[in-house]
Design a protein that fits this description.
The complex is a heterotrimer of chains A (about 210), B (about 200) and C (about 250).
Chain A lengths: L1 H24 L3 H38 L5 H20 L5 H20 L1 H12 L5 H14 L3 H6 L3 H36 L12
Helix pairs in contact in A: 1-2, 2-3, 6-8
Chain B lengths: L3 H16 L7 H36 L6 H9 L13 H31 L6 H15 L10 H42 L8
Chain C lengths: L5 H24 L8 H16 L3 E4 L7 H20 L3 E5 L4 H15 L11 E3 L4 H12 L3 E5 L5 H10 L4 E6 L5 H7 L2 E4 L1 H10 L3 H29 L4 H5 L3
Helix pairs in contact in C: 1-9, 2-3, 3-4, 3-8, 5-6, 8-9
Classes of the chains: A mainly alpha (about 210), B mainly alpha (about 200), C alpha/beta (about 250).
Chain lengths: ~210, ~200, ~250
């Protein structure tokens, strides 16, 4: 039983990974098909995990309602909306008329607004960025200002600004970002390798 | 009742409620937040159910694709997490998810993140721009060599970090400018679609 | 062998070789020294401050797809959860991806078991928000008035929202990602950050086991080799010879 509890998950991890790694490097058509199948399976397993996640949220809000907490009314709003979306989605499928209405006028506007609010916070983030803590922050600030000067009224009074901004964007920015990508590559390999071989297994739990 | 007008008013109510958080957390925002949590989870649940039916259950039970029972079983094993005694049963399903992910990222990273990028940096050092580009890339890559603590390496790593700060600052400035258009998009919805104001003020 | 992956395979084989060699060497000598990450200290400071204030801390992986950054984040989450368990401080976790929910639960559970505090674990504090992650996250941060805010993983625009929400309560903020489009914002708004590879390498500093040390050493050795190749390749290209540049893509 101990094998099933602690070793089997590692064997499954290694086995699934081995097929994918092997078919990536070597021409084994059957394994290539299997690897593609594995990636499709992930979508299916993740869909089951959805039920776990949603179950947790339902439990959280149901608990608040049953304990009659002051926030129970909000919890009720969550559970009622969830029930409506789920019922309509299952009853008339996600292509149905009512579902589309719910999606377009409840789900979509909040999603779009959530993204749009970042505009305001970028402004306050800029304020924070411009509190110069050290020389690195100073360089960051100067570079940001150079980019901001390229548009609108600034570029009229400072015609060279767009050219400077283009240079900053094409040369040091691309170079700096490329180094972040290169620098992380082998760390990704190391971390993934440790996970595949079962040498790093915090995500599989422990204690038993 | 479920027409475009009702929908637009509801959307406006939700939009303004979410915006209201910018002032402070308040009951209106809280209501919108909770409605949205329900909506988002409902959307996911409906889509998740449909995708399991379409890509696994129906092909497995009706088209004889028996191999698909494997992910269905692995998925179902996740429900063992609802029992404290048997939650360990779900570990193999998690192992499968993490194993496939790790293999994909591990193999992909070497080519896409390393060799292709290094090859692209092998550029002719015949102009100031190319030399600056090259020096920043090489120095900033050295910044990620964590066990090298020799004195000679320190200025190189510093140079690399300054290079990255230029990159971060530029991306920051660029994004600030582009996000303005996102905000004006939501303003346009409130003014022209909801309040039916005419652009140009006529 | 498939076309276009020969060099990639050689790099992988070299990595594995150096990984095992360095790990074995560390086992024998016990010597490991690397640059310290300020962000790890800040995480501890944030949890310590939260404990003093009797407030929770908040954790999120961001809204990006399940990728390697989550693997690095699991290690750092375990560290944060251990400290929270030790000091009896709540940690609320906001999650956007369903498949990460059980893994997060296991990571936190393991940390609490190892601290002997499993009975104090609040399982309801691991919260799956799906697409509503952002409003739910800022709502949670605001209502709970968190004293520490950690966001490590595949970050997108939600990092800005998180920074803003937590800054209102003067929370100590530590974030990390390799997503280059978000690094600027976290660099500007946080008390300390992990830049790309730093969040992967932090594991060795937390607990220098042979596998973690081997992993960092192998990455370091090969990074230096590739910088060397970059220099040689650029010089060759300058002289009109593109053979190394072509070879590295094989």
């Amino acid at each position: 039983m101990q094998f099933v509890k602690s070793k089997l998950p590692v064997v499954v991890t290694f086995g699934a990974a081995f097929i994918i790694v092997a078919q990536y490097y070597f021409n084994i058509p059957a394994w290539k098909t299997l690897a593609a199948e594995f990636l499709r399976w992930n979508v299916i397993i993740a869909a089951f995990a959805l039920a776990l996640g949603i179950g947790g949220i339902v439990k959280l809000h149901w608990g608040r309602i049953s304990r009659r907490q002051p926030t129970a009314v909000y919890s009720a709003a969550t559970l009622i909306t969830l029930a409506i979306f789920l019922f309509v989605g299952l009853y008339e499928t996600t292509r149905g008329k009512t579902y589309t209405w719910l999606y377009d006028f409840i789900y979509n506007p909040v999603a779009a607004t959530s993204y749009a609010t970042t505009f305001f916070f970028i402004t306050s983030a800029a304020y924070r960025a411009f509190r110069i803590k050290n020389s690195y922050a100073a360089v960051l600030m100067i570079s940001a200002i150079l980019m901001m000067l390229q548009v609108g009224v600034f570029s009229v009074y400072l015609p060279v600004a767009p050219k400077i901004a283009a240079w900053v964007w094409n040369i040091p920015t691309t170079a700096g970002m490329r180094a972040v990508t290169i620098g992380a590559a082998l760390s990704v390999v190391g971390n993934a390798f440790r996970v595949i071989t079962g040498l790093e297994r915090g995500h599989l739990g422990g204690g038993e | 009742m479920l027409n475009a007008t009702t929908g637009t008013w509801l959307a406006a109510f939700l939009t303004l409620g979410l915006f209201s958080w910018m002032y402070k957390e308040n009951p209106w925002f809280r209501l919108v937040e909770h409605i949205y949590v329900g909506a988002a989870l409902g959307v996911l649940a409906s889509q998740g159910y449909q995708s399991v039916m379409d890509i696994a259950w129906k092909p497995a039970t009706q088209q004889g694709k028996t191999l698909l029972y494997v992910p269905l079983i692995l998925g179902a094993l996740l429900f063992s997490r609802w029992s404290k005694k048997y939650m360990w049963v779900s570990r193999s399903s998690m192992g499968f998810l993490v194993g496939t992910l790790s293999a994909v990222v591990m193999t992909g990273a070497i080519k896409a993140q390393l060799t292709a990028q290094v090859a692209a940096t092998m550029m002719p050092l015949n102009s100031a721009n190319n030399i600056i580009f090259f020096v920043i890339t090489a120095a900033a890559t050295m910044y990620f060599v964590f066990t090298l603590q020799a004195k000679w390496a320190s200025p190189i790593m510093d140079l690399g970090k300054y290079g990255m700060m230029i990159a971060f600052g530029a991306t920051f400035g660029n994004t600030v400018m582009s996000r303005i258009s996102l905000f004006t998009g939501r303003l346009q919805f409130l003014l022209f679609q909801w309040l039916k104001l005419t652009p140009g003020g006529s | 062998m498939n076309a276009g992956v020969t060099v990639s395979f050689i790099v992988f084989a070299l990595f594995v070789g150096v990984f095992y060699y360095s790990g074995a060497r560390f086992k024998q000598t016990g010597k490991f020294s690397a640059r310290k990450f300020e962000a790890l200290g800040k995480m501890e400071e944030a949890i310590g401050r939260a404990t003093e204030m009797g407030k929770p801390v908040h954790w999120s992986y961001g809204m990006g797809a399940f990728d390697a950054q989550y693997l690095a984040a699991f290690v750092l989450l375990e560290y944060a959860a251990s400290l929270c368990a030790k000091y009896d401080t709540r940690m609320i976790v906001s999650i956007a991806l369903p498949e990460v929910v059980p893994m997060t639960e296991e990571v936190i559970r393991k940390a609490y078991i190892e601290q002997g505090k499993l009975d104090t674990l609040h399982t309801e504090d691991v919260r799956f928000w799906g697409g509503s992650h952002n409003p739910a996250m800022i709502g949670t941060i605001s209502r709970e008035q968190v004293a520490g805010n950690f966001m490590i993983g595949s970050l997108f625009h939600e990092s800005i929202l998180s920074i803003e929400a937590a800054a209102r309560y003067n929370a100590i903020q530590v974030m990390g990602t390799q997503n280059t489009h978000q690094l600027p914002f976290i660099a500007a708004g946080c008390d300390a950050i992990f830049i790309g590879a730093e969040m992967f390498a932090a594991a060795a500093q937390l607990e220098p086991t042979p596998v973690r040390v081997g992993s960092v050493w192998a990455a370091d050795v090969l990074n230096v080799v590739f910088v060397g190749l970059m220099i040689i390749g650029a010089l060759l290209v300058t002289a009109g010879n593109t053979s190394l540049k072509t070879l590295i893509l094989k």
